[in-house]
Amino acid sequence: MDVDDSTVEVNLISKEGDSFPVTLNVAKMSELVKSMMDEEDGDDDDDTTKEIPLPNVKANVLQKVLEFCKHHMTEPMTEIEKPLKSSLMADVVQKWYADFVDIEQVLLFELILAANYMDIKPLLDLTCATVASMIKGKTPEEIRQTFNIQNDFSPEEEAQVREENKWCEDA
Length: 171
Prior knowledge:
Blueprint: E1 9-13, E2 19-23, H1 24-27, H2 31-40, E3 50-53, H3 59-74, H4 95-100, H5 105-118, H6 121-135, H7 140-147, H8 155-164, H9 166-170
């Protein structure tokens, strides 16, 4: 029996146990969920809504992931050119997607982890491109400041590393 993936619902369960009902076509944007659904197809009890536990994804992050997936179903994201043509995400993707990743760093990195865990390539591409845009055109010191990275090189060690990698700066 063929079912329409846009009408069947599944519940995605966050790390905290919160349940997020979504249509199957949205849920299947995640290769992880898709493979879990395929494994469960053998034991069909169609009267109950399937629950997919996602123990590595917090509720607030899963909510953002689903917001992305739902929007992606109606307006697919344009392919991200590599290397990035700009450090402004609005020049790289549509406005909605640029606004979507205009978030706090902590949430951005949690979205990267969730997209990787759930295997959602467009979301992983978008979030990683956002981090790349935060690095693009910056000096090592500016990058350290942006990501709050401690410089653990002594001035001598840093001079040596710069000398050994001088070819990078010439390119």
